[in-house]
């Protein structure tokens, strides 16, 4: 009896040992087995890509595992489509570091890319973009700076989850969602200095049904930027600061798109601390057509924010207007609600609607807004804006 039991145990043990997988996760592809070295010095791009290629060929759900340690990756594109329609997971426990020095991440403007991977999950880990050298090159105004690279790009994919990723010091945007449908971004942290240029936290572009939950973003540009071609977005529980706020736009400048549209966006429960903007919509001047409609900003807390609520249809980031198109914007903005926005402005004007002369804003709704400047009611400023108010609204509405 005892012998039989031992035999059974041995069999179980062997089964567990030789199972190449965690049964729940499916097949497991550890980058160490592909020759990656966790020393932060040897380029692990090749091993990462070979592990990915095998995972992507798996007919079962598959996981590429990056164990604890530092891995240098020069640049990598993890491409699909993969054979398993179920899911391919890229699970990082360690830190992935970009090359030291500016550039060196390929010339495509992207450091790490996933494309054409339906059912992708990217989880955990730290991405260190080491952007400092490039920012300094740009700050010195050198014309020969290398093309800056966004740290993580998810492109042309459906049903994607990005969870628990920490991204620090990207040369350009930290996380880009490009031409995707059905993406959940959960528990992402972004850390870069307040003076780092164009280091947006999360940039959404031409995507639909994207949700962002529980993000903590400190950076030198927009915490979240919503570019053209986005619809059906849900953004909830975001702490932003330092940074330039949560922005729809800028719209109206891109080459190539006939009409630039953003619609059905909810931004709920946000905290802005010491940011230049809170809730912003920005469009360039000029004849580029498009619209922003169906936006709800609900439950926002401002602490020392320069422009807590702002629509800027003469957006021009350069001083003196160099390189900015003149004329009034042809992007029409309608049906935008602000519900439950409170806290302190760092400037006298806390609510600013500077809308297009040729395409005035319509359907702007302010409800339960309480914004102060130095402990007193702040001011509001309107140009070409129409709408209504409900409940307590302070500063008094100029709509
Ligand atoms: C707006 O977007 C949300 C997702 O954020 C979606 O659930 C809802 O159905 C969309 N509404 C319309 C009218 O498309």
Can you describe what's shown?
The chain is mostly beta strands. It has a single domain (26-252, 260-316, 328-394), classed as 3 Solenoid (Pectate Lyase C-like). The protein has helices spanning 2-18, 45-57, 132-139; strands at 21-22, 26-30, 39-43, 62-66, 70-72, 76-79, 88-92, 95-97, 110-115, 120-123, 126-128, 150-155, 158-163, 166-168, 175-178, 181-186, 189-191, 202-205, 208-218, 224-226, 230-240, 246-251, 259-273, 277-283, 289-305, 307-312, 330-345, 349-354, 361-373, 376-377, 379-383, 385-394. The strands form 2 sheets. It has a 21-stranded mixed beta sheet that branches. Strands 6-9-12-15-18-20-22-24-26-28-31 form an 11-stranded parallel beta sheet. β29 (361-373) and β30 (376-377) form a beta hairpin. The longest helix has 17 residues, at 2-18. It is elongated, with a radius of gyration of 24 Å. Bound molecules: 2-acetamido-2-deoxy-beta-D-glucopyranose. 2-acetamido-2-deoxy-beta-D-glucopyranose binds at residues 232-234, 264, 266. Residues 232-234, 264, 266 line the site of 2-acetamido-2-deoxy-beta-D-glucopyranose.
